[in-house]
Each structure stands twice: as C-alpha cells, then as structure tokens.
C-alpha cells in the first residue's frame, strides 16, 4: 500500500512538473501586445501607440507584428508607416516598418533585430504615424492584428521559441475620429460666419486656411480682426470668405463646454457645441444677464435668423445687459 502511494505521488509530481514546464516554455508566457491611444490627426494621418506588457517577466529575443487597417485603398493610393523617433522604451527597438496593400486593405507592421531583454511591467514599443494619400473621411476605420501565413505576428521568447498567443494581442482604445469627430461646413459664395465645436490641431487650422479665400476673422467684444496666431479659440465665431460653394471638413476633439467673458452690456457673438443647446441651459454669472432673443447668421441667405438654441457650427448673436460671464455646456 505504501508503495502504491509513492507511485501515485510520483505520477502527480511528474504531471505538475510537466504542466509547470509547459507554462514556462512555449506559449505559456503571460504577456500582451496592445494598440492604444489611436488618434486621427487629420484626414490623411493617424497616430497610435503599441505597448508590450509582461507581469511574470518575458525574455524577449525578437518580434514582428502586422496589423490590418480595414480601409479601402487602390493601386494609385500612397501609404506609409513610420515609427516616431525616440518613442520606444525597448532596448531592442524597432528595426523596420512595413506597409502593403492586400486587396483593398492596408497591411502595416514593424519588426525588430535579434536581441535579448527581459520585459517586466508595461513598456512602449513605439508610437507610429500612418499616412494615406486617400482621405479617411467618414470611414469606419478599424485595426485588427494579423496572424495569417503571409503577414504574421510573431513573438520570440527565450531560445527563440515562438510564444505568440492571439488572445494576448488586443486593441484597448479603438477611438478613431470618425464622422462624429469631424466638422463639416457648407460654405457659400461670399462671407460665412461659423463656429467650430471642436479642439483642432494647428495642422487642421492650416488646412482651413487652404480651403478659404480670405480670413478667418474673429469677433471679440464687438471688435473684428484677422486671426494672427494659429489657433481657434473655444466658443468664438469666425468669418471666412469663399468665392465658390464648397464643403470644408475639420477633424478634432469635440468640445464639452466653453465660456465667454463679457466686458460690458451689448450684443456678442457666441459659438456652439457639437449638440444643440437650449437657451434655458445657458448659464450666466451673474444670473439673468442674457436677455431677449438669439439669432444666428444664415450663410446661404446672408441674413439673421431667430432661434431659441445654440446650433452646432453656427455663429450666434446674444444680447447681454451687464458685465459678467456666459457658460455653455458642462
């Protein structure tokens, strides 16, 4: 009986050892490759970061990773992926980036040289910038890891063992700027008054200047002047001139609120948020300094229109009875 117990114990111990060995060697490494902070800079460029994390320690010898960007391209479109300099926290950083066209999809990727370092906790593999000569307008952009035989994602651990596990590759924040994050302006021949309910980059501001024929001019405290810096302020209204009808698109982060300082009584221009704001939901300090009706400028008919709301992308006129401050949104 004692001999049987020893045999059973030996078998159990052997099984535990084999299971433990399988965890240490092969695909048992606990790690994750993640795509985070995806951000569309403008209609031709997007940026994202790749992170590698290991809680138990991963001896990393080499890696190559490929991603599919589900965005229709053709043979005439130009695409390019680059890693931003000094963005990697790895000792064995990215050696080469890749970009291909497969059917209508973009295949983008990166790979390293052979090296050896232990990954503990979370490190940034790199920050990437992707360019497409075709605009991303209104596209439901989507990134997916690729594990097929042609463009394969591979992670090589100790002794160059392939430890790749599809479940360990994730996209945490697929927050591409799509149609919800683009401001579309219908501009009509002549002067147009607009407001931009987004925080936009300097590059987007430069794109706006390329689209218009004159301006932008801004009106602050009833004084109108040409915008001299390269930023558009929250809650402000802007005058732009075009010779022909056109649609202008600007990408950015939607505003949730803005405020306007009031120096004295009178009429003031005020902007908008991405959603319609009822007049009764506009806060003022002191209270009740907003009086009378709200008007917006109709760019097509070139006339003022009565309204009870702040309408997205429109430039509005409000009447203020004393010095104070107006707050819109929360």
SSE string, helix = H, strand = E? Answer: HEEEEEEEEEEEEEHEEEEEEEEEEEEEE
Q: What low-confidence regions span 5 or more consecutive residues with pLDDT below 50? A: 1-28, 174-179
What is the β-strand count?
A: 27
Within the largest sheet, what's the order of strands? 4-7-2-1-10
Please state the average pLDDT score. 80
Helix fraction bin: 10-25%
Instruction: Report the sheet-strand fraction.
Output: over 45%
User: Could you describe the largest sheet, including whether it forms a barrel?
Assistant: 5 strands, mixed
- Give the end-to-end Cα distance, rounded to a whole number of Å: 76 Å
Shape descriptor reads: elongated
Number of helices: 2
Look at the helices and sheets and give the structural class: mainly beta
Rg, nearest Å: 28 Å
Overview of this structure, please?
The protein starts with a helix and ends with a strand. It has a 5-stranded mixed β-sheet, with no helix packed on it. With 330 residues, the chain is mainly beta. 10% of the residues lie in helices and 49% in strands. It has 2 helices and 27 strands. A hairpin with a 2-residue loop joins strand 14 (214-220) and strand 15 (223-226). The protein has helices spanning 2-24, 202-211, and strands spanning 31-40, 45-60, 62-69, 79-83, 94-102, 105-112, 117-132, 143-145, 154-156, 169-171, 182-187, 190-194, 198-199, 214-220, 223-226, 238-242, 246-251, 253-254, 257-262, 266-270, 277-278, 283-285, 290-298, 303-307, 309-310, 316-320, 324-329. The model is unreliable at 1-28 and 174-179 (pLDDT under 50).
